[in-house]
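Long-time lurker, finally posting.

We've been working with Serine/threonine protein phosphatase, putative (Eimeria mitis) and I want a structural starting point before designing mutants. I don't trust myself to interpret raw outputs, so I'm hoping someone here can both generate the structure tokens and explain anything notable. Sequence follows.
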Amino acid sequence: MIFSHAGVSPSFAALGLQQLQQQLQEELRDGCRIYHQKQRLEANGWRLSLFVGGADGPLWSRLYTLSTEAVACPALQQALQQLHADIMIVGHTVQESFRIETHCTGKLLAIDTGISRYVANSPHAVEVTPQGEVYEVSVHPTAAPAAPAAAAAAAAADADAADDDGADGAEAEKEGGEETGDGDAVRGVQEIDAAAAAAETAAETAAETAAAAAAAAAAADEEAITISRRRQQQQQKQQQQQQQQQQQQQQQQQQQQQQQQQQQQQHKSEKPLP
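Top reply, 14 upvotes:
Generated this for you. Predicted structure of Serine/threonine protein phosphatase, putative:
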């Protein structure tokens, strides 16, 4: 059983797991240097694909999740044979059903279900028992945190309540006499200042939460757009392949018809022996 973030294609599977791990460690350690070397080589006409940064690498590939099974399954079977495994488990591409999906007669498990609450809030996991049985585990999502505006409003309400309590306490203590009135009034002002500071902190936290949510939503939108574009490209490629196959079939039929006509003409031109 192979676990890979995006999927190990046959070209990378041919290297073997040990070589893949070594290459990954080298590129993580010397990523900048390797990246600049790659740019220089490609500028001179070389075509390279980084393990980490390359679109076909095990961290970015979508070969098994966006291709048709006619394309993905033979490649998967070849990779599994090279890796001496029977199942590959991948993530990276969110499934449209937001559930764990199986492909290629159960040899591929796609387990990216949109766990983030900004994508689908659909946490799922794969459980593998000691006996080798595989189960899908669904985790009930927790309630979403209060919206930033609601949190800020609640903080402001708490601050107002603290202001009222502090003012009431200061007024009551002032009526109680000069011995304790001055000290209690000071404490009331301090409590009001503390409540105001807490409200300001809550407002800042709410603003940061809103900014983080907006950034996560933008990232999710960009991921969805990328997936949609890749699917359109894949569909266009499939249509082109189908058109080419149809043209080839038509050419073969025309050639067969021409051969039959030539054979018929030869039979007609033949004369019987006297």
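Before you design anything, note these points.
The chain is about 60% helix and 10% strand.
The first strand starts at residue 2 and ends at 4.
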